[in-house]
Design a protein that fits this description.
Membrane topology: Multi-pass membrane protein
Structural class: alpha+beta
Helix content: 40-55%
Number of helices: 5
Pfam family, one: NfeD
Keywords: Membrane, Transmembrane, Transmembrane helix
Strand content: 15-25%
Number of domains: 2
Main location: membrane
Strand order of the largest sheet: 1-4-5-3-2
Low-confidence stretches: none
Subcellular location: Membrane
Shape: rod-shaped
Number of strands: 5
Radius of gyration: 29 Å
């Protein structure tokens, strides 16, 4: 318990950097609030060195909670926005593309080759070989196609 009576600002800086290091390993934002609270507590303790250990722990707990909630409420969605929202959605990238059928599609179902991938396709009605089709949508890994005029 004597250690708690001698907490210094640099102790809280170590806690802050440990939290940031653990956050870098993939905590998903949970430790950012604790790191911010530890940095703030180090600054407060530098200005008010006579602060007791019990108050330091209370301020750390409350600060961690406030900063974590603020991160989740205001900043978490910032990194989820992308300039390329369909980057890993290959089927969605193909919507609007026109291709020529290499095989008949009896019953409107079959497979077509686009690039190096063989795709399952679904259409309304029979489509014959050589018919240009447009990709209108996707259901999972199945492309929805329609006759292109």
């Amino acid at each position: 318990m004597d250690f708690l009576n001698t907490l210094q600002p640099w102790h809280w800086l170590i806690v802050a950097f440990l939290c940031l290091g653990l956050e870098a390993l993939g905590a998903g934002g949970f430790l950012l609030g604790s790191a911010a609270a530890a940095f703030l507590l180090a600054a407060v303790l530098w200005l008010l060195p006579e602060t007791g250990w019990a108050w330091q722990l209370v301020w750390f707990a409350v600060g961690s909670l406030i900063f974590t909630v603020a991160y989740w409420k205001f900043f978490r969605g910032v990194n989820e926005k992308s300039d390329y929202p369909q980057l890993n959605q290959r089927a969605a990238q193909l919507i609007g593309r026109v291709v020529v059928l290499e095989n008949d599609l009896p019953g409107g179902q079959g497979k077509i080759q686009i690039g190096d991938t063989l795709w399952s396709v679904k259409a309304v009605g029979h489509l014959e070989k050589g018919c240009p089709v447009i990709i209108t949508g996707a259901e999972g890994m199945t492309l929805l196609i329609d006759r292109h005029s």
